[in-house]
Design the sequence.
């Protein structure tokens, strides 16, 4: 990553700064915990294989997939922050990946608000019974 060699504000190498280390560690946590969301539910596998699942399973699978998608975006945001302004150029691979993920997140299927609202309504309905 170019950001590791970059000087932050012309003074400190990002790789030697606390902010750089914090950003890299936080991005790693986002990436490394994504499988907890995408792989922990049998319903996620069922959705992928077109097997019939319960409504609760479908809502949980959507919640988990959307959460993982937003974690990927969070990791990319952190890495782009370490990369400085380089990511805005079309030739930058990190920037191209970030733009692709941002585009994906504009789709309703990736809406955190919609996924969480549907799941939350299901939880609140269960509490009211």
Sequence:
């Amino acid at each position: 990553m170019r950001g590791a060699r970059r000087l932050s504000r012309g003074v400190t190498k990002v790789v030697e700064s606390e902010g750089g280390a914090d950003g890299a560690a936080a991005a790693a946590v986002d990436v490394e915990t994504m499988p907890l969301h995408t792989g922990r539910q049998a319903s996620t596998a069922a959705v992928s294989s077109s097997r019939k699942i319960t409504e609760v399973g479908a809502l949980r699978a959507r919640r988990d997939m959307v959460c993982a998608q937003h974690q990927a975006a969070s990791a990319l945001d952190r890495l782009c922050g370490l990369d400085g302004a380089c990511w805005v150029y079309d030739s930058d691979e990190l920037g191209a990946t970030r733009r692709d993920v941002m585009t994906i997140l504009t789709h309703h299927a990736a809406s955190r608000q919609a996924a969480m609202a549907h799941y939350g309504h299901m939880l609140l309905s269960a509490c009211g019974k």
